[in-house]
Amino acid sequence: MKIAFVGKGGSGKTTLSSLFVRHLAATGSPVVAVDADINQHLGAGLGLDEDVAAELPAMGARLPLIKDYLRGSNPRIASADTMIKTTPPGEGSRLLRVRENNPVYDACARPVELDGGAVRLMVTGPFTEADLGVACYHSKTGAVELCLNHLVDGRDEYVVVDMTAGSDSFASGMFTRFDMTFLVVEPTRKGVSVYRQYKEYAQDFGVALKVVGNKVRGEDDADLDFLRSEVGDDLLVTVGHSDWVRAMEKGRPPRFELLEEANKAALRTLQAAVDATYEARDWERYTRQMVHFHRKNAQSWGNERTGADLAAQIDPGYVLQESVIAPA
């Protein structure tokens, strides 16, 4: 299952996504964690020292390798150079699976040990001073979108993406790539403003969206009443103060089993909500939306950028699904 954590800057989405990754790892589930935020903090949230996290290989810097591998023997793609972030797979494309080893993981993923379990961590790479004035951060997150387009994940397999803050993911079709989007919201007017944007954008695409109330002080006070009045039934669960998180943020996290029981219960609720979407998966719609956004990107900038008719990359009879067998 593919899960996105989104929210405004400072909402706590990276902390919650790292807790969810730890929770999944503790259950023994295979997990790929992806830091797609412009501010790269997921590695630190998973316990890596800052210098180690800074040395993680950037997906954005390895985009040619990613494109070349995913292209495979797809005859509709003339060269890896003509692939853009929305390029869909077709007959002959190579696909990514959560549990496998492949050249993309070899180049871009690193194992992170978490209380006896391990997850794969991938990062887009930070927005550097060299990028200013010449690059857009969407060009970095494009590596994530391309991988999601070619990813086949099954039941009890998880890809958790810590997205960039705000509503930037709607600048492309990446917001439609997830089985569940968790919107982390503080009980403030600014906190719910991003929720309204996401709700408006997502409702036309069948995006499953649930709100996680963060920094909520108690179950019976005005914070909870405020969130209920603003987001209604989209409010899935709330999370309050955590001494465990405070210790983690100081670089001294206790064993994960010592996380407060109320917060453990919240994480179990998140997983139950994700797992419940499995039966509602619609691979045909997923592929159709992929094609829709590829056509839009091709017309607006992709054809001019590559000098090719990118709509010709679309394989009209192809549907990405769990049973697809890709070439080796």
Automatic annotation (TrEMBL):
This is ATP-binding protein. It comes from Streptomyces kunmingensis. Keywords: ATP-binding, Nucleotide-binding. Residues 7-251 form the CobQ/CobB/MinD/ParA nucleotide binding domain. GO terms for molecular function: ATP binding. InterPro entries: CobQ/CobB/MinD/ParA_Nub-bd_dom (IPR002586), P-loop_NTPase (IPR027417), ParA/MinD_ATPase (IPR050625).
